[in-house]
UniProtKB/TrEMBL annotation:
SUPFAM superfamilies: Acyl-CoA dehydrogenase C-terminal domain-like, Acyl-CoA dehydrogenase NM domain-like. InterPro entries: Acyl-CoA_Oxase/DH_mid-dom_sf (IPR046373), AcylCo_DH-like_C (IPR036250), AcylCo_DH/oxidase_C (IPR009075), AcylCoA_DH/ox_N (IPR013786), AcylCoA_DH/ox_N_sf (IPR037069), AcylCoA_DH/oxidase_NM_dom_sf (IPR009100). GO terms for molecular function: acyl-CoA dehydrogenase activity; flavin adenine dinucleotide binding. Residues 215-352 form the Acyl-CoA dehydrogenase/oxidase C-terminal domain. This is Acyl-CoA dehydrogenase. Residues 7-106 form the Acyl-CoA dehydrogenase/oxidase N-terminal domain. PANTHER family: ACYL-COA DEHYDROGENASE, ACYL-COA DEHYDROGENASE FADE28. The lineage of its organism: Bacteria, Bacillati, Actinomycetota, Actinomycetes, Mycobacteriales. Belongs to the acyl-CoA dehydrogenase family. Keywords: FAD, Flavoprotein, Oxidoreductase. The keyword Oxidoreductase applies. The keyword Calcium does not apply. It comes from Mycobacterium asiaticum. Its cofactor is FAD.
Length: 354
């Protein structure tokens, strides 16, 4: 396996990084999202061309996630991408053609409603059949960027205890979308309350159900956290070169050097794990092992880098005006998605038969 990015991928990364350097809003930047969809066609990178995508690979989408994470871009890319993945893998041909074009173009936004440790094997929503229709009842939380979504992918317990993914429209009767306070001010949350809400099942479920969808989500989240960790290291190194103490840059002190070196080592390990996981997307067995490994490694690395960068910056890093607190908030909240790092390592051990 070649752990090298192609020239085209490096150019794509540079273009996207430059694009995201422009100032943006804190919670949700609708204008930026429309530009990412329209000018760069970001949501459809690895989606087949027949559904309006670019037909690239998951590695390309992981590169996009890394740059979005580096910039803390306040756009619903993650939740939309995971919902699109569910529709692509679990929906039938009619559902794909009906939904994907609008979701890739930015005309509509989808939100993924499964983020807990049992996202692929447990659900807090129950589905029942009544008069030939499926109705959902329960609570689904947290839903990233749920307040701006037009359609939701919601896992629910169907007949015989099977977990099935359902599509719910934002204007469906019985659905209430509540904004929730979020520790990460760049990624708002919502709660879905469903009371006999009409829904459509994704009708072409593959073996494993939501498991491969959640594993893809883990890989892309790991890529996003990699970008955030890289940004923390860059800010720490830049500050360590500029800030002086005792007439010398603080970067010349051994303790600061060690912190930066440890950050770099963990970032390099995370980059290799993310790249391997993204390349393994076509192999179900390899992805089952690589996805939880990459998520756990990236989560711990991002938290470590955010904490170390804050320590290197000293008092200024604790001010509201400095950007580092936003990276720390993103690190801690993303670490918890789909379960903690300990839960992901336990999942890895279980899947590896240890």
């Amino acid at each position: 396996m070649d752990f090298q990015y192609s020239t085209e991928q490096d150019e794509f990364r540079a273009v996207l990084r430059g694009f995201l350097q422009r100032p943006s809003a804190e919670e949700y930047d609708a204008a930026l999202w429309q530009r990412l969809c329209g000018e760069l066609e970001l949501p459809g990178l690895h989606i087949p061309a027949e559904y309006g995508g670019a037909g690239a690979t998951l590695v390309d989408t992981a590169i996009a996630c890394t740059e979005l994470g580096r910039a803390l871009a306040p756009v619903p890319f993650a939740t939309n991408a995971f919902a699109v993945e569910a529709i692509l893998r679990l929906g039938d041909e009619e559902q794909r053609k009906e939904l994907l074009a609008d979701l890739l173009s930015g005309a509509q936004i989808a939100a993924f409603g499964a983020w807990g440790p049992g996202a692929a094997s447990g659900a807090t929503v129950v589905a029942e059949r009544r008069d030939g229709h499926t109705l959902l009842t329960g609570t689904c939380t947290p839903v990233l960027h749920g307040h701006v979504a037009d359609v939701f992918v919601v896992p629910a317990v169907a007949s015989l205890g099977e977990i099935t993914a359902f599509l719910v429209r934002v204007d469906a009767p019985g659905l209430t979308v509540e904004r929730l306070p979020s520790f990460d001010i760049t990624r708002p949350l919502a709660r879905l309350r469903l009371s006999q809400v009409p829904a459509d099942a994704l009708r072409a479920g593959r073996p494993g159900g939501l498991l491969p969808v959640v594993d893809i989500a883990r890989v892309l989240l790991a890529a996003e956290m990699l970008g955030g960790a890289e940004a923390c290291l860059e800010m720490a190194v830049q500050y360590a070169r500029q800030r002086t103490q005792f007439d010398r840059p603080i970067g010349s002190f051994q303790a600061v050097k060690h912190m930066c070196a440890e950050m770099l080592v963990e970032i390099d390990a995370t980059r290799a794990a993310v790249m391997f996981a993204a390349m393994s997307a076509s192999s179900g067995e390899e992805l089952e092992i690589a996805a939880p490994l990459a998520k756990a490694q990236a989560a711990d690395t991002f938290v470590q880098c955010a904490e170390s960068a804050i320590q290197i910056h000293g008092g200024i890093a604790f001010t509201w005006e400095h950007r580092l607190h936003r990276y720390f908030r993103r690190a801690k909240t993303t670490q918890a998605l789909f379960g903690s790092s300990a839960q992901h390592r336990a999942l890895l051990a279980d899947r590896a038969g240890l």
